[in-house]
Amino acid sequence: MKSITDLLQDYDIDIEKRSGDNLICFCPFHDDVKTPNLTIYVSTNSWFCFGCSKGGGIVEFVEEIEGITKKEAKQKLFPKKDDLTHLRLRFDHMKDKRDKMEELTLNDDINFTLSRQCYSHLKDHTEEFDRVFKTLKQLDERLTETVTIKNSRQIIEEFNKSLKE
Q1: Which stretch of DSSP H or E encloses residue 3?
Q2: Is 137 helix (H, G, I), strand (E, B) or coil?
């Protein structure tokens, strides 16, 4: 469940000062430009404006700031199980980010493995540096393509084969 402080962040309402456990800010419901009149009671998850005399809990806050009905505010704050489209979209977004991270990690693993093999080979065969360097440049071009677990083994095998030639 969202807290009143979460809503302040969601609607970009800046906290001007603290008064004990309470927060004080300018009221978004009227022209409150001189003195911050909106008091947020964190412990009770409620609010009251001493300038316009409006107040309530999180439902009333969303109702007032969005200009929607109490029922719509409740639906926005507490979506039904079958109305979780936004959560599915967020899940898909996070899954895409995870897949991208796995791809980057896989590229790092391939680079590390190939670098280690290259160092080992060059340590014993210094005269082959130019050929190995050329092979590494080609490999680097291949790694800019999308790398999957399936083709990563193939790339490593091709690299090892080119070193033996």
Answers
A1: none
A2: helix
Q: Do 151 and 139 contact (CB within 8 A), yes or no? A: no
Residue 109: both structure tokens together: 């693993």
For the whole prediction, is pTM greater than 0.70?
A: no
Whole-angstrom distance, CA of residue 29 vs CA of residue 47: 12
CA 32, 24, 58, 51 torsion: positive or negative? negative
CB within 8 A of 5, min separation 6: which ones? 23, 40, 42
Nearest by Cα to 28 from 43, 12, 41: 12
Distance CA 34, CA 54 (A): 18
CB atoms within 10 A of CB 26: 20
- State the pLDDT at residue 47: 94
As a residue count, the chain comes to 165
Select the more confidently predicted residue: 51 or 147.
Answer: 51
Token readout for 8 is: 């302040």
